[in-house]
């Protein structure tokens, strides 16, 4: 049973960089209330999830960098760019919402 | 014998994880897609509760916290904690968007079960128990008696102020 | 032993699907069964790729069930013209 705590700094870097870069790119900080029905991409929903997922995938594939920190920062930037500009094109929201 | 006790405990924990998160995320409130409405009203016709029926219909028609819990447990079992849970959260998010759902319930379920598995491993429970436990948990909701389980889900929805307003 | 537990659940759900009469009821048993099959894929393959396979299978089966339920609802609404 292995808990990989060595890459904790990488995950923290991914979360922080994704939130900061997506706020800079103009995404709202929180979705509108009630959050569970909202389709707007924001700085705290899907951006950190995508960034953490990309970081985890590259750690599993062997590309770790310096304890994952630089990897996390790059993944955060990529995820913020993807959410801000491409998410609505890749996954359009359905018509009746 | 120890493993059976472990699977039972993991089943109870997974059941709580996905039912609480799904109810909080509004699954009993309204059907997310048309198919969920069909299943919900059919359960009501067969003697169940409408909000519980919408919950079960939403379970079938789109990945939600139940899928997030299962795939998060599978990820943690095969790829280690926490990488597996994070990869599972990303895959569940993509699956949610493909099924016309915003994605909050599924990713939250995957992330929370990752935290739970990390804590449970300190108590000696391996992630594989949660994989089998989640299958048992979903079977108690969808495989035993739809009317009774939908009434239980409706009562939980009422308690958490997520009961449906539709008729 | 985990594979045996999951396998028993899959077989039970399949039998209940065959015996049920109502179409929506069958969809619920099939959904429970696909949870079981997805878990069995992961438990049997045993490597990291198995997790990806299990996730892909599960999402695909959910999309299928979504399409079936949507069509059942539409079929319920159609009117048949008798000649």
TrEMBL record, chain A:
What is the annotated localization of this protein? Cell membrane
* Record's keyword terms, sorted: Cell membrane, Membrane, Transmembrane, Transmembrane helix
Identify the main location.
Answer: membrane
**Which Pfam families does this UniProt record tie to the protein?**
NiFe_hyd_3_EhaA (PF17367)
InterPro entries (alphabetical): Prd_NiFe_hyd_3_EhaA
GO cellular-component terms in the record? plasma membrane
Q: How does it sit in the membrane?
A: Multi-pass membrane protein
| TM spans (from-to) | 6-27, 39-59, 65-87
- What job does this protein perform? One of the integral membrane subunits of multisubunit membrane-bound [NiFe]-hydrogenase eha. Eha is predicted to form large electron transfer complex and might catalyze energy-driven reduction of low-potential redox carriers.
Protein family (similarity comment): Belongs to the EhaA family.
Task: Describe the subunit structure.
Answer: Putative multisubunit membrane-bound [NiFe]-hydrogenase eha is composed of at least 20 subunits.
User: In its UniProt entry, what is this protein called?
Assistant: Probable [NiFe]-hydrogenase-type-3 Eha complex membrane subunit A
Automatic annotation (TrEMBL), chain C:
Highest taxon of the lineage: Archaea
Stretches that traverse the bilayer: 36-60
Instruction: Write out the entry's keywords from A to Z.
Output: Membrane, Transmembrane, Transmembrane helix
Question: Keyword Transmembrane: yes or no?
Answer: yes
The record, for InterPro entries, names: EhaC-like (IPR019214), Prd_NiFe_hyd_3_EhaC (IPR011316)
Q: Which Pfam families match?
A: EhaC (PF09882)
Q: What name goes with this protein? A: Membrane-bound hydrogenase subunit ehaC
Biological source species: Methanothermobacter defluvii
Q: Which taxonomic lineage is given here? A: Archaea, Methanobacteriati, Methanobacteriota, Methanomada group, Methanobacteria
């Amino acid at each position: 049973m292995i808990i990989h705590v060595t890459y904790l700094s990488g995950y923290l870097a991914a979360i922080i960089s994704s939130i900061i870069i997506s706020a800079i790119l103009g995404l709202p900080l929180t979705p509108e209330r009630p959050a569970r029905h909202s389709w707007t991409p924001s700085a705290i929903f899907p951006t950190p999830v995508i960034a953490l997922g990309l970081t985890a995938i590259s750690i599993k594939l062997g590309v770790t960098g310096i304890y994952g920190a630089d990897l996390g920062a790059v993944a955060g930037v990529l995820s913020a760019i993807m959410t801000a500009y491409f998410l609505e094109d890749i996954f359009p929201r359905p018509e009746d919402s | 014998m120890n493993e059976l006790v472990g699977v039972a405990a993991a089943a109870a924990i997974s059941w709580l994880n996905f039912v609480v998160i799904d109810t909080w995320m509004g699954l009993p409130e309204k059907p997310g897609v048309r198919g969920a409405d069909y299943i919900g009203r059919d359960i009501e016709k067969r003697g169940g509760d409408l909000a519980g029926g919408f919950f079960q219909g939403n379970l079938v028609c789109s990945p939600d916290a139940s899928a997030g819990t299962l795939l998060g447990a599978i990820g943690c079992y095969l790829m280690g904690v926490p990488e597996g849970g994070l990869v599972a959260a990303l895959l569940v998010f993509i699956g949610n968007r493909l099924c016309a759902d915003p994605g909050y319930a599924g990713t939250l379920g995957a992330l929370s079960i990752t935290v739970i598995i990390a804590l449970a491993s300190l108590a000696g429970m391996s992630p594989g128990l949660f994989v089998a436990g989640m299958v048992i948990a979903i079977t108690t909701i969808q495989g035993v008696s739809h009317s009774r389980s939908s009434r239980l889900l409706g009562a939980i929805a009422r308690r958490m102020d997520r009961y449906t307003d539709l008729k | 032993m985990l594979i045996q537990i999951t396998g028993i659940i899959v077989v039970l759900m399949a039998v209940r699907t065959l015996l049920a009469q109502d179409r929506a009821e069958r969809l619920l048993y099939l959904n429970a069964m696909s949870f079981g099959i997805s878990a069995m894929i992961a438990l049997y393959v045993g490597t990291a790729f198995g997790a990806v396979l299990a996730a892909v299978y599960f999402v695909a089966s959910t999309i299928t069930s979504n399409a079936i339920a949507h069509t059942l609802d539409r079929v319920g609404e159609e009117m048949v013209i008798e000649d």
